[in-house]
Amino acid sequence: MKFLVETIIENLPLARNPEGETILRELVHRGGYKDLVSDVRSGKYLRFTVEADHSNEAKEIIFDLCNKLRIFNPIVHKFTISKVEKL
Amino acid sequence: MNNFNEVEEGMISVMHSEHCSYKSSRPILKAFSQIKSKRVLIGLEQDAGVVDIGDGYVVVFKIESHNHPSSIEPFHGAATGIGGIIRDILCMGVRPILLLDPLRFGSLEKPHNRWLMKEVVGGIVNYGNCSGIPTLGGDIEFDESFDTNCLVNVACVGVGKVENIKPSQVKDVGDLLILVGTTGRDGIHGVTFASRVITEESEADRPAVQIGDPFAKKVLIEATLEAIETGFVNGLKDLGGGGLTCATSEMAGAAEKGVEIHLEKVPLREENLSPYEIMISESQERMLFCVAPSGKEAISKILDKYNLSYACIGHVTDTGRVLVFNNGTKVADLPAKLLSDPPVIHRTSSKPKIREISTSNVYAADLPILIEKKLYSLLESGNIASRRWIYTHYDHEVGVRTILKPNVCDVAVLRILGTKKAIAVKSFGNSVQTYLSPYDGAAGAVAEACRYVASVGAKPVAMSNCCNYGSPENPEVFWEFSESVRGMVDACKVLDTPCTGGNVSFYNEDEENGIIIKPSPVVVILGVLEDQTKAVSMNFKNPDDSIIAIGNTVTRLDLQREKKTIDMIVELIDKRLLTASIPCSRGGLGVSVAKMCISGDVSALIRIPLIPSYDHMNEYELLFDESHSRFMVSASEDNTAEIIKFTKQKEIPARIIGKTNNSQELAFVGNFSNTLDTIRFHLPDLKEKWEKTFPSMLG
Amino acid sequence: MKVAVIQFLGSNCDLDSVWALRQIGVTTDLVYYKDFEEIYYKYDGILIPGGFSWGDYLRAGVIAANTSCMKLVCELSESDVPILGICNGFQILTEAGLLPGALIRNDSLSFICKWVTISVESKKSVFTKDLVIKSQLKMPIAHGEGRFATDDLNKLYKNNQVVFKYLGENPNGSMDAIAGVTNLNGNVLGLMPHPERASDNIIGGKDGLKILKYFLT
Description:
The complex is a heterotrimer of chains A (87), B (699) and C (217).
Chain A: E1 2-11, H1 18-33, E2 43-51, H2 55-68, E3 77-86
Antiparallel strand pairs in A: 1-2, 1-3
Chain B: H1 6-15, H2 18-21, H3 26-29, E1 40-42, E2 49-54, E3 57-65, H4 67-72, H5 74-90, E4 95-100, E5 103-105, H6 111-131, E6 140-142, E7 151-161, E8 176-180, H7 200-204, H8 214-229, E9 233-238, H9 243-254, E10 258-262, H10 275-280, E11 287-291, H11 296-305, E12 310-317, E13 321-326, E14 329-335, H12 336-340, H13 367-380, H14 388-391, E15 402-404, E16 412-415, E17 422-428, H15 431-436, H16 438-455, E18 459-468, H17 475-495, E19 499-505, E20 520-529, E21 546-550, H18 559-574, E22 580-583, H19 588-600, E23 603-607, H20 619-624, E24 631-635, H21 637-649, E25 654-661, E26 665-672, E27 675-682, H22 683-698
Parallel strand pairs in B: 5-6, 10-13, 18-19, 23-26
Antiparallel strand pairs in B: 1-2, 2-3, 3-7, 4-7, 5-7, 8-11, 8-12, 9-11, 10-12, 13-14, 15-16, 16-17, 17-20, 18-20, 21-24, 21-25, 22-24, 23-25, 26-27
Helix pairs in contact in B: 5-6, 5-8, 6-8, 8-11, 13-22, 16-17, 16-18, 17-18, 19-22
Chain C: E1 2-7, H1 14-23, E2 27-32, H2 33-39, E3 45-48, H3 62-65, H4 68-78, E4 83-86, H5 88-95, E5 102-104, E6 112-120, E7 136-143, E8 147-149, H6 153-158, E9 162-166, E10 178-182, E11 188-191, H7 209-212
Parallel strand pairs in C: 1-2, 1-3, 3-4, 4-11
Antiparallel strand pairs in C: 5-8, 6-7, 6-9, 9-10, 10-11
Helix pairs in contact in C: 2-4
């Protein structure tokens, strides 16, 4: 079976995020959304299509792969599997 | 320290750390201060040395390390390393115009090292390119001792007018202290005793390495330079290691003054920072200005213009103390000198047993085949191969100053706009030679960097160094450190390149497996060319030029001879007698001539037995020996006689050993087994070997 | 012509551009983007320099394109003011809608700094009207997002808007190796290579002056 695994890599919550901060300040707030929007974080989004027997296995494969191949660096990054979907 | 409160203890502990205090290295580094030069306006006492290059211009330069962060998070580690050194140059009052990145990695055969190198280069690209400062003139070395601890050093060079030079100290009592940039909890790791806000859970959300913001740095550069132009800034210092504690106490201590600051005024990026955290935070992209009270409005206007966060956090006093208030309550009161002049530690050193690298005997009959194999393997080795993969990722053109491009020159050669002059800068180190003999290896690094700078026609005038070693608590490591400093001091003395500052990075070792890096002093030499139009690159320019080997092939470094040879090369280039020039460095004369051919797409025929040498050496040794004090140059036939005559006058051995041609072949004629024989290399083959290493390893 | 080189936060070829223009005698001011709105009427030409405006965050050029300074530049372009965008300046002009197409990440996915040769493909731009078609210019490129893309290539060719193409190797994967384009009117030109870095023989050549010297008229 094929599964779609969506992952998000972003800077750790307490790390600085210069890109998000700049987008917030220079585009969002300057564009008139100062009262409504208080934070923007930027990150990377990767979507894997993976062969597995069940969704937990798909999740495990991608989690291991991302650790092993240094798709993210836990020293600075937060890694989230945001969605697993059967194709 | 029983009478100190926790804020004071934190301040003292930060300032007395090895990183801020140089407590182990200072007694040894003191030896550099004996070398003086009238060109050096500010030497070891400040953040970065200031060198007078004439016509009212000064050059500020310094090298630093960012090894430990880069080993665990190479991208951001390398990036914030650049951020730090840029601030060091900027805070002297000049515009940063050049970055150099000396790097050391373990073998690229290992995937981890390939990952490290790609990420480090990526971090430099990300930060350096965005900052608008060109990157070139660095060096890179591979050795298994860097497997667990890679080295990421970074040097920056700035240029400005002599009258804009600002000391990193406060000036008059009553001057205002303006802090630019926001403060967060960056760099306060593992310190929990005084920080009640950080819980263990939130600590897991905090990165162990800081994230740099090159855009904020670029804005800080422009704002700082504009603020200095107003004439109201009496002194400034960047906030790096030791944060606000270091900036305030060192600025006050250097001027024999005191400061009073109020922490509730500090612009914060996070809520509820304790006084302790504010005093030791190492948040990036911050600067502390000492401003004459009459200039408050003018400076505020500039900082507003650039959308920077800032606040006037206090003023200069005559008490000699760092006095810290928070919402009206005194939270610290310490003598500035207690923080800025910490006590030293005298470490013991002991000489390790003699180190050797095994060599094998070669037989004359095998020489042609050995030479062929050796030249190919040298050209594709990581320590020698073309750096094109690296430098095409770096913006090395921004600034419209780059005269000689990295494809034809290993040295950064930049014109000084508004003058006829140019500067030449090169970083160099050889950890294997330093491991075998710390004294000779370190002295040799100074000599070799000087030789690089001289090879373009620039006179070497000053030096900065970064000393990368294992733990100073290990007597053998401390011996390596002391010996190599002794070597550098002796070399700087003879070569007339005083040390203007630098950095020491200890503890580059792996506790688990006991691997200690090879001792790695990295030297940066600054040279000055009076006439920028005379700069010479390494590429052969024309067929039918004479190829001249200058200097004897002889094993031991002789500093006096080095100095004479360097001076002579600079003179030859000043007389416009040379068409190409390269120092004999890694891989000896054979690699040098191959690089001249490849970079110029001009071929050559070399007669090996003509290479000057004292001792009897075979062809293999003559080609690949890495003797010091040698150059390879080319000249038009018309100028050859004058060059040889000049070298005779100077009593430096030199000989025409071949000619350039258009044959697409690099040919070495030898005297093998008493039969004259020629080893031929197809130039495109050499080029392919030389160029392919990094692209094929790193993609 | 009196030229304003507009400095955005993060511009880094601003001083280089001012230097190159002044070298050839163009009266040039460096104008901070916030100040431009007050003094724009003093200038006859505009140069938007290279660099990393607002750190290239989100997308190269997008934040600068959203400033009121750029809104004003858009209005000025309608009154035929010559506008040259170099590298990040080109990216800003496409983001602001003054030039067609977009500049996306290089196909190598990495930043590239090297000298390239480009050919002149159109005399529609005021900056190239006196150049010879198919003549070659040598200049450095230095960018990570310089791959030109458009959804209507035919229209660009039909209207003669393709001004420069890379010769030999296509360094960044641009569609049809396009290195520079102009607007329908011919008064706005954007290119990825850096003419200001090819402004003196000692730094490698001065072909860039062939473009910049239009500001002398």
